[in-house]
Amino acid sequence: MFRHSPRNLLLAAGVLALFQVAATSVVFAEKRVALVIGQSAYRAVVPLPNPANDAKKMTELLGNAGFDVTAAPDLSQSEMHQAVSNFADKVAASGPDTVALVFYAGHGLQIDGENYLVPVDVDPKREADIPLQAVRLNDLMNTLGALPTRMRIIMLDACRNNPFPNISTTAGHGLAIVDTKAGAAGSFISYSTSPGAVAEDGSGEDSPYTTALLSVAKEPNLPIEEAFKRVRVAVNQATEGRQIPWESSSLTTEFKFFSGAQGSGQAPSGQGPSAPGQTAAARKPSATRSVDDWRKELKGKDPKVAYELVIADDSVSAYEAFVALFAQPPYNVRVRAQLERRYVMEAWSTAVAINTAASYQAFLATYPDSDLAVTARKMQERVRNRSFGTPTNLALGPMCPCPVQPVQPLKKRVEEVAPKKRETQRVRKLPSDVVETKRRPEPGIPPEAIIEGIGMGLAIGGALSGGGGGGHSGGGGQLPHGDSHGPVGGCTGGACR
To answer: Quick check: 351 and 359 in contact, CB under 8 A?
Structure first.
């Protein structure tokens, strides 16, 4: 029999305390913090009704999913910068076992291959005003990527029509591709529609993307990749094929919005989403299937069933297999349009990544009538006008000439690194009637463009004594833009004579 002696009572209290500590450590094994931005009250253009509704409902959903949510509606540029900074402080204070999530609803633009989130006080008169007045997506991603976190999730319902008449004819449509695999592991980014495409605001209280997300995310034990496959199919159905959400992932641990019976709205326990022990070793990524694999998978299926399968996968190989097997409208027409747009955006991303006159010329040669052609010509002219002469100090006049290494050794170095035999590949357009069934080559740029890009960077950054570094960082996976080669230093250490 248990006696209520002081010693026994103290022992029981100690055991109870240990259980409480253990339970607490499980519940709070994963910290979840979120920033939700809804931009509706634009001042220079017609306001958007749905982002405010989208943000409000996402705030409620994420709160139920265990996130500590910061709601930040209708932000100006300075307010958006401050909100991101405050959120970064919050993430940093939460520790390395934190899931940091940002949901943004509002206007978004791509300028010169860069994506920008649009504050409510933006009023651009020309394209050059956007980098000065808006917030660069890559800055947000780099800020979060620099913090020790388990994962970073960014959801952008931001691909709506360009509302600014002064730049609507020259800026690219939608948003540019962001490859999370190019940066630090542990990132997930989702667009409300495909890169380079335009999303609909919807006729209801919420956009088609947020409507689907609010429904799918509540399903218990649903990994985030599977959740967004279902979102993609739902949005495609709701818009009759006009809109197909897209995402890129470099996650190494599993994430679920809700686990077990928590889809009813209760906060998750530590045994639910992304418990610490679920590492990349226990979570192997699915292998990319080839066109032939997809042809075998789709052959004999009903066109509608096959269509939903390839939309859920959203891969080039799946789309190529579909258009080779199914000629019936409307599905064939929808997939052809999606595949052609993916070709354009992959070729554009390659051109921007290399960032030379030759790379932009290669893009223009393949897609001269693209909505990005104007930007490609502008970027081509910009890189051609780079100064390769002697650095000049405005106060002292031309600086003393520094010896510059010849370009030839740089070319040899490139040839030593690259395979001796290299096939020149280009992105091909879809024929108007038939699509070849063999695998499409990956989008490429002629070797001379790559040599020019590498040679230019090495010559400017290293051949001159005291040369400067490169341009924008790629921590978030965003491709560089503009003059990616940094400022060049002058002669140092008595090198000039």
So the answer is: yes
